[in-house]
């Protein structure tokens, strides 16, 4: 969650020269305590202009131009509503730790300031944009100039400003993540950054079916994406173990199908108001929600609720294990297509973004023409909602439909069926199982996660090129990169964070930064400084041994300390995808 906005008038004001000192209030005492605690920390190295993750397109440092944020700084912004909102979010990010009032204004320029301007940023300079379906995404780009008198952020759009704010935030000392005032010199390193993304689609996926996650948890994941300039959150809303989105025309999907999850837990679901809240929260952070309704397989929860959808019309028992591929809706019954149209229609109506994901994976029992026929009909149903269809790459053999996108999750970059679909016009989102699957363990002793696609340490997450990963697929066909987190063995927000961090920033850099900048050693060093940011913000992460994290806190607190909790009771082992959950996060 972002820091709660505070009323600038109740903030401690810097003492004005010549005025009598007043008795310390609660805020002053909190500040003193923070100062004392601050002294226990090992002094961190100053942030450099080129420490940013994902690496910007171009960075020109000017060490003589460092700017120290003044207590009376203002945030000046152009009057567009979108820009104003980004400026307010910047103020909300900076006020808690600085204790400065940081008023947001569109009045004429004055003294020391942070200026946010939407209009004609000069984003044409810097390294060339090298690839991507729709390369050169100037509309998400920004220019940040830091001089002794202030920071000036310019962009063509509010989205560009928002990304620039994430950069600005990373350029301040890590203590900026504190939710209480910290005694710190808020220095911004001088120079100019010009930046824009390599790929337009940069995302992560959260499986809220295998284990249900509350709205607040999802909002927090949105925050993590936004920090690293990821702009899509794919929600895997339905699967065998639970149906998580309210559908008015088929109410038992949630009242019956939403009551289970992996293990013995109660499950849960999002009401339409809950889902709209997620969409709104994400939109404010320039993140698009991509809803997935997995069809025709992965549908046991729906079949429990509505046996009429099942082949043979017999309700299966609820499923709380972790195997895949056994369930499917009946592709030969017209009622199934009423169901698909009703569900996708309601989900589309709730979702302002352009995408609808129809799953399509592991429908092992719907073969050949029955499968492609089902997918083709479902693609057309999506088109009628005005949305663009995405499916897991298993839908490749189905006929092409304009604009369709395949999400590739293979582990071998030679996939002729997918290359053929691309030749027919499909675009690709890359989620290679052995690089981008954040449910894979980091190492053999990682307490949660799978290993069917191998172990994925930070280096493995980082060392591949989305522009040249699949044989016969040109970079121009690649829409972007997505990092899925399946949650068979992931049960709490802290566990979600432990699996996301520090790998999510590695994938974010692949999706954002030009290939020419790709450099493991440099990335590892830049990433190291983020551990302190996460721990200050109370975010869990895995202390990957490959990353040179700065020294631990003087009081011996581990940066990644996690609550230990008992194992969820899991049914017997499934096939190769069973999580081997032997110990929880107690490192
Ligand atoms: C494969 S990837 C699945 C999911 C599992 C995941 C576990 C994909 C489209 N399907 O059903 O949760 O493996 O890693």
Secondary-structure blueprint of this entry?
Blueprint: H1 26-39, E1 58-61, E2 67-68, E3 74-77, H2 81-98, E4 104-105, E5 113-118, E6 142-147, E7 150-155, H3 158-171, E8 187-188, E9 191-195, E10 201-207, H4 215-227, E11 232-236, E12 238-239, E13 242-243, H5 252-255, H6 272-284, E14 288-295, H7 300-305, H8 334-350, E15 355-359, H9 368-384, E16 388-392, E17 405-408, H10 416-423, E18 427-430, H11 433-436, H12 458-462, E19 478-485, H13 493-500, H14 503-512, H15 520-528, H16 530-537
Parallel strand pairs: 3-4, 3-5, 5-7, 10-11, 10-19, 11-14, 14-15, 15-16, 16-17, 17-18, 18-19
Antiparallel strand pairs: 1-9, 2-8, 6-7, 6-9, 12-13
Helix pairs in contact: 2-3, 4-6, 8-9
Ligand TNX is lined by residues 324, 361-362, 392, 409, 437, 439, 450, 486, 488, 577.
Order the strands across the largest sheet as they lie in space: 10-11-14-15-16-17-18-19
Largest sheet: 8 strands, parallel, barrel
The mean pLDDT is 87
**Alpha-beta content class:** alpha/beta
How much of the sequence lies in strands comes to 5-15%
Bound molecules: ligand TNX
Radius of gyration: 25 Å
Basic shape = globular
- Work out the helix count: 16
